[in-house]
Amino acid sequence: MTRQATQVGIVGAGPAGLLLGHLLHLNGIDSVIVEDRSREHVIDRVRAGVLEQGTVDLMAAMGVGGGVEHAGLRHAGLYISFLGQRHRIDLTELTGGKAITVYGQNEVVRDLIDARTATGRPLYFETEDVGVAELDSTEPVIRFRHGGSAHELRCDFIAGCDGFHGVCRPSIPSGALTVYEREYPFGWLGILAEAAPSSDELVYTLHERGFALFSMRSPKVTRLYLQVPPDEPIEQWSDDAIWDEMLRRMTTRDGWKPNIGRITQKSVTPMRSFVAAPMRHGRLFLAGDAAHIVPPTGAKGLNLAASDVLVLARALKGFYERGSSDWLNEYSDTCLRRVWKAQRFSWWMTSTLHRSPDETAFDHQRQIADLDYLTSSCAAMTSLAEQYVGLPMEVSFESAGLPAGG
Ligand code: FAD
Ligand code: DHB
Known about the structure:
There is one protein chain. By secondary structure, this protein is of the alpha+beta class. It is built from eleven helices and 19 strands. Strands 1, 2, 8, 9, 10, 11, 17 and 18 form an eight-stranded mixed beta sheet that branches. A hairpin with a 2-residue loop joins strand 14 (about 210-220) and strand 15. Helix 10 packs across helix 11 (about 380-390). The protein starts with a strand and ends in an 18-residue tail after the last helix. Bound molecules: flavin-adenine dinucleotide and 3,4-dihydroxybenzoic acid. Flavin-adenine dinucleotide (FAD) binds near residues 190 and 301.
């Protein structure tokens, strides 16, 4: 048995765990990150693509923004398409200069792993049997196996950054958490294709056959999504069938459509809204998908993981620098204010742009009216724009030990 001790034990090397580890490093706080998958798996996992302005600013302030700045695609607007017509919403004009940046989550994770490695601080991949215990004590513990031997990591605090299917949230005694949940009767079939993006900006489409989304990863790679039933077997979709359906839903009356190319990745993701509250039990703090899930339509999940860990870093800094637990005690309420606004926005984007199996003709006409209003009212477009580029983070960058900017 190998015994170790650290100030903050972090479970999970996704965006939440890696960002937190680096924020703590910048404040001189020790951490150990424990991840159960391999480095390659974590980097290759294709997921999010849209970074809010605040997430890009945060990464820059942390000194890990070089990749985003160099290869990220800054978008000043997006399109909403319905009844065969695209309508542009100018995010930058409506938000006083803010934008979103398209930069794959796997690139974010790669940059953060490189930054972690450069600090020389521990990051264990391919751990097994990870468990957390003694959460109510002042020395909670993470136990895991690595390289054939058992490890016990004593911590002052544990950060549960292990995603929706991780072990941290289920380790909290039942009854201590309230769960708020909503499942949707559809999922997203997502593909990556070797095709130059045919639009410089994202296109969110409501078609009578269902939702479709045009996005991208680089000047040579297009990323597309299609609403499908939630348990749709991906094997049922040949590449030709995927392109037929994408073109059917996305082609607009002026002839715009995505370019076709070789499909290099495809998968189906179910959609749910989920919040577990409070985001803390004893000395275990949950952050990111471990505490909450949003349906991907609003592009908020990764961005919420970033805002959670900024709040957590501030709280831990307050504890170590001033011996104060005030910010730790406020952690959950502070995060949940922003989380619930993102939940509301993601639910609204999802229900406005997808077709439900149980919807009535009235519901569909109301959706069309909603989109017609959205794309013709400056007030409605401004509301979408300020939420899409990201509502303000609840705490300042300086309070978490970073240069100004948030
Ligand atoms: P994760 O990324 O899930 O990381 C958790 C880590 O913990 C993983 O590396 C996992 O392997 C590890 N782990 C799990 N269990 C254990 C264990 N027992 N022990 C040790 N380690 C463990 N968000 C956006 O902001 N913008 C978007 O455009 C967007 N698009 C999306 C599109 C799709 C198709 C999907 C599926 C998601 C999208 N999201 C988007 C959501 C985003 O990907 C997630 O919210 C984000 O990954 C959350 O980061 P996290 O670090 O909290 O969790
Ligand atoms: C992407 C993902 C989203 O969930 C979204 O709303 C927009 C874009 C993407 O993967 O590019």
